């Protein structure tokens, strides 16, 4: 995989070192192993030399010391395997296995007859479910062993049977075998032998026996080996192969080029994977030999590879390099020797905390310890490599090496560092990613200490990498001073850590301060949605209002003030008042329930709108003239005030502000009075008394709401409403009839009834008056009649006279004043007496007051209702002056109609008699119908023979005996038909004439 440029970071630091040259037993180190299981404060280091010595070193309190050395064999110590659980060490030397105690207090003991061992590997298992139990594998077939110095003993064991120890070797048998942790794979020639090391119960003794578990045919030239779960991976000069410890089958993972470095295998304990080295490329495979992830490309082919948590440690030629396992990036390079130093070996703790690493040169042992993650992160932050620091923390959190709270802590720390570096947007982005940071931590950047919220601010400077919090103005000023110093130093040739963008294009103080405030606003806006304590909520909302005001974001100020908020009014009212943000202050008062103060502000604003002293930013526009803006602003103030009053039950407060709202918009005044939002309704008497007598429409609208919506049955309100409508109708009638005063005066008179778009009613006042007079029965008609008696409101008078039962006056108005013949005739129909039509005819023919007779109306009346009139009375009533040609046809038709009705009545009478006679005849025929019963006749119900028994017959001709008739009843036949519910008709019963 492609490798990025190395990123400098201190992951490990030197802890201690020891030069083995002064010791007589020293020779070039060939193998190395660690054990930290003796105690938490001490680590044992085992080093095997080229000359066959095993050296024991102790690392304690940052000091490494030589403890003891013991001669194991005459050839190099190839492998050292620490059996920490039992305090023993297994050593491969002289192609044999030796067992020593961990403190080298006893001479090494050679194990069994096994010789010619090339490579040894201990079995490592990840879980029981992924690893087979080797005790279930069949016993090895010793007859297949080649004839060696030990084959005679093996054949002897085969003859003697199991359970017999000979020369320290015990052949495994399923019944006696006990699977332990000390299971190893050995390569002897072309044989791969799996053994278990059985140690004695005495911990101080080196007694041990070897149980042979399995033998597998291997390949020649094995140089390195790893046993993981059920897979044994071996490496030769030709490539890497995988063997199954269960089936013994093998397969090639991949082959190496003809010219390549020696094979090398490294078991990655943390990931439970295996690293295969191909020259300078490390390929990671799983337990099945399948490549996983990407390859790791090292700078050179290493001598040895160690593991330190997330990193691979590669050593060669006096240099140690740490590569990140996931990214493959070289994180740190440490030099501990020069070129040509010789082969170097790296070893790490396999069962410890993973914080210690030991590197051995031919003559030295150097110990390194992992730098704590916090120190690594601090180092990155000091170098201002913020992205790398966050990346490291996130990776540690994913690996389980660091808590989520620590990740939040680092985000907050990075945010503060960026804030003081004037990168406000990035700083707030990190603040928002910190789940543990409290919004109160930014309060000191907004308001100087001491303030109301000083005690809420955590006194935590994190790692002390940034200055104490200060107001944003000071942060910006100090940052600009730092930029100026950096520019001066750059000119002097000194490198600085200031952002190059700031150096090339220095920002202005105003721009930086505005950017800082905008981003702090963004953080506080998000913080409002979190669950905060009440005191912190107060600080967030109040200081947010401060910041809005600093940028003059009027819309946001008003939106915050009008919404549910935790702002402290005492902290803001002076600020908003002095800065002229009265609308915001009014919204704030209203949201806090301080309705009286809010209404007082809206009243002042409405007055200032009308005088042109104050403008609403929401409606301020150069394209509109001042008068339009003033009207819009006044209505806006009235609307906001009305919304407050609609929910208020304070009657005095409502009536106090009703007047100025009504002056601006009567519709809003009516909404205030008729609101259903308030819990307790207003007293109608108090409201009516408080309404200005000039605001007639408001009074009428309120009374209409009481009567129609609230179903008030108070006759006082009904009468007052009728009188008010009548007065308005009279004024409207006078204004319409005064043709000489249509100018300015007429406009002024009608202005109170029609305020442009704010007109309350859509229908004319006379129409409303007429509808109410007809629909209501609770007003006093005489009182209304007294008011309109001398006016031209004839239809209204007719309605009132009708309420009073004065039929003659109603007919006179309808017929003579309004000349509405249809309405007059309809009224006569409602009266329901024929004399009403005669009375109406008299009015048409003799209208009185010098008015000409209304012959056409009279003829219309005779045409429509002449049939119901007495012809003699009509003839007596007709005026001698009535033209004969006008009335002759009508009178003739009336007489003919009378004769027609008479004869038609006679015909109907005779037809009725004929129908009655037919019905009687049909009934007689039915009753005289005969039914013959003989000996074979059966009852339709019980099927009994009737004979001479009594029987009954139903209308549907069913016949039953008398007994069944008594049981069935006379209305229900044996078929189930109920003649009371389902009447039966026969064709003979119907009258056909």
From TrEMBL:
Superkingdom classification of source: Eukaryota
InterPro entries in the record: Clathrin_H-chain/VPS_repeat, CNH_dom, Vam6/VPS39/TRAP1, VPS39/TGF_beta_rcpt-assoc_1, VPS39/TGFA1_Znf
Domain (CNH): residue spans on this chain: 31-349
Coiled coil: none
Pfam family for this entry, one: Vps39_1
Positions of CHCR repeats: 675-853
One record GO biological process: endosomal vesicle fusion
One term under GO cellular component: cytoplasm
Official protein name in the record: CNH domain-containing protein
Species this protein is from: Acer negundo
């Amino acid at each position: 995989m492609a490798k990025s440029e190395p990123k400098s970071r201190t992951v490990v630091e030197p802890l201690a070192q020891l030069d083995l040259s002064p010791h007589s037993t020293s020779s070039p180190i060939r193998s190395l192993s660690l054990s930290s299981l003796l105690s938490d404060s001490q680590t044992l280091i085992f080093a095997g030399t080229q000359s066959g010595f095993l050296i024991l070193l102790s690392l304690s309190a940052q000091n490494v010391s030589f403890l003891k050395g013991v001669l194991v064999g005459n050839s190099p110590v190839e492998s050292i395997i620490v059996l920490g659980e039992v305090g023993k060490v297994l050593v491969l030397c002289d192609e044999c296995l030796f067992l020593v105690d961990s403190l080298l207090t006893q001479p090494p003991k050679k194990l069994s007859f096994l010789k010619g061992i090339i490579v040894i590997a201990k079995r490592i298992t990840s879980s029981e479910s992924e690893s087979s139990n080797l005790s279930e594998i069949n016993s090895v077939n010793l007859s297949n062993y080649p004839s060696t110095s030990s084959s005679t003993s093996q054949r002897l064991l085969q003859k003697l049977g199991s359970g017999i120890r000979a020369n320290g070797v015990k052949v495994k048998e399923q019944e006696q075998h006990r699977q332990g942790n000390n299971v190893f794979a050995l390569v002897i020639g072309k044989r791969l032998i799996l053994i278990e090391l059985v140690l004695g119960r005495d911990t101080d003794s080196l007694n041990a026996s070897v149980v042979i578990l399995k033998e597998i045919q291997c390949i020649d030239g094995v140089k390195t080996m790893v046993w993981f779960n059920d897979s044994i991976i071996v490496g030769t000069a030709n490539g890497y192969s995988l063997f199954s410890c269960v089936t013994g089958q093998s397969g090639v993972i991949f082959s190496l080029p003809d010219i390549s470095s020696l094979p090398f295998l490294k078991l990655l304990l943390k990931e439970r994977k295996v690293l295969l080295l191909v020259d300078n490329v490390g390929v990671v495979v799983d337990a099945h030999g399948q490549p996983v992830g990407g390859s790791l490309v090292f700078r050179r082919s290493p001598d040895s590879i160690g593991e330190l948590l997330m990193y691979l440690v590669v050593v060669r030629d006096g240099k140690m390099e740490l590569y990140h396992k996931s990214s493959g990036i070289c994180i740190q390079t440490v030099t501990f020797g020069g070129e040509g130093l010789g082969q170097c070996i790296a070893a790490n703790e396999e069962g410890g905390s993973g914080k210690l690493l030991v590197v051995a040169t031919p003559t030295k042992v150097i110990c390194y310890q992992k730098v704590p993650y916090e120190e690594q992160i601090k180092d990155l932050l000091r170098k201002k490599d913020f992205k790398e620091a966050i990346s490291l923390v996130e990776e540690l959190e994913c690996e389980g090496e660091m808590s989520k709270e620590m990740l939040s802590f680092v985000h907050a720390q990075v945010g503060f560092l960026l804030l003081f570096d004037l990168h406000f947007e990035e700083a707030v982005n990190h603040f928002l990613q910190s789940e543990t940071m409290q919004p109160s931590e930014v309060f000191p950047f907004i308001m100087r200490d001491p303030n109301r919220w000083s005690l809420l601010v955590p006194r935590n400077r994190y790692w002390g990498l940034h200055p104490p919090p200060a107001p944003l103005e000071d942060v910006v000023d100090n940052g600009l001073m730092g930029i100026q110093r950096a520019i001066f130093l750059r000119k002097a040739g000194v490198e600085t850590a200031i952002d190059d963008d700031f150096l090339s294009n220095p920002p202005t103080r105003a721009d930086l301060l505005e950017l800082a405030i905008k981003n702090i606003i963004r953080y506080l806006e998000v913080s409002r949605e979190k669950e905060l304590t009440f005191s912190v909520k107060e600080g967030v909302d109040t200081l947010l209002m401060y910041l809005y005001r600093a940028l003059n974001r009027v819309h946001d100020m008003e939106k915050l003030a009008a919404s549910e908020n935790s702002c402290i009014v005492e902290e803001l009212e002076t600020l908003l008042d002095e800065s002229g943000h009265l609308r915001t202050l009014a919204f704030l008062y209203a949201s806090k329930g301080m309705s009286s103060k809010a209404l007082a502000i809206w009243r002042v604003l409405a007055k200032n709108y009308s005088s042109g002293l104050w403008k609403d930013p929401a409606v301020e526009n150069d394209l509109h003239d001042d008068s339009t803006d003033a009207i819009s602003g006044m209505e806006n103030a009235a609307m906001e005030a009305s919304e407050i009053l609609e929910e208020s039950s304070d009657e005095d407060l409502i009536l106090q502000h009703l007047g100025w709202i009504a002056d601006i918009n009567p519709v809003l005044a009516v909404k205030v009075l008729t609101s259903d939002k308030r819990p307790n309704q207003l007293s109608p008497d108090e409201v009516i008394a408080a309404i200005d007598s000039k605001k007639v429409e408001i009074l009428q609208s309120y009374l209409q709401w009481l009567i129609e919506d609230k179903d008030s049955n108070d006759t006082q309100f009904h009468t007052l409403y009728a009188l008010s409508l009548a007065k308005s109708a009279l004024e409207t009638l006078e204004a319409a009839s005064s043709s000489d005063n249509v100018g300015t005066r007429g406009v002024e008179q009608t202005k109170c009834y029609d305020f442009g778009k704010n007109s309350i009613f859509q229908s004319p006042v006379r129409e409303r008056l007429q509808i109410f007079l007809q629909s209501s029965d609770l007003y006093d008609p005489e009182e209304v009649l007294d008011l309109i008696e001398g006016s031209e409101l004839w239809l209204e008078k007719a309605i009132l006279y009708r309420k009073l039962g004065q039929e003659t006056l109603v007919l006179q108005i309808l017929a003579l004043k309004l000349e509405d013949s249809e309405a007059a005739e309809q009224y006569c129909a409602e009266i329901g007496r024929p004399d009403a039509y005669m009375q109406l005819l008299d009015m048409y023919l003799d209208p009185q007051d010098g008015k000409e007779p209304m012959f056409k109306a009279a003829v219309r009346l005779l045409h429509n209702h002449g049939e119901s009139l007495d012809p003699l009375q009509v003839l007596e009533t007709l005026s001698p002056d009535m033209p004969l040609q006008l009335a002759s046809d009508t009178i003739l038709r009336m007489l003919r109609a009378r004769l027609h009705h008479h004869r038609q009545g006679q015909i109907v009478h005779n037809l009725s008699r004929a129908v009655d006679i037919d019905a009687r005849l049909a009934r007689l025929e039915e009753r005289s119908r005969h039914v013959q019963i003989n000996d074979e006749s059966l009852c339709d119900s019980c099927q009994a023979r009737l004979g001479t028994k009594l029987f009954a017959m139903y209308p549907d001709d069913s016949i039953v005996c008398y007994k069944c008739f008594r049981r069935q009843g006379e209305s229900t036949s044996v078929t189930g038909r109920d003649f009371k519910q389902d009447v039966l008709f026969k064709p003979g019963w119907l009258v056909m004439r």
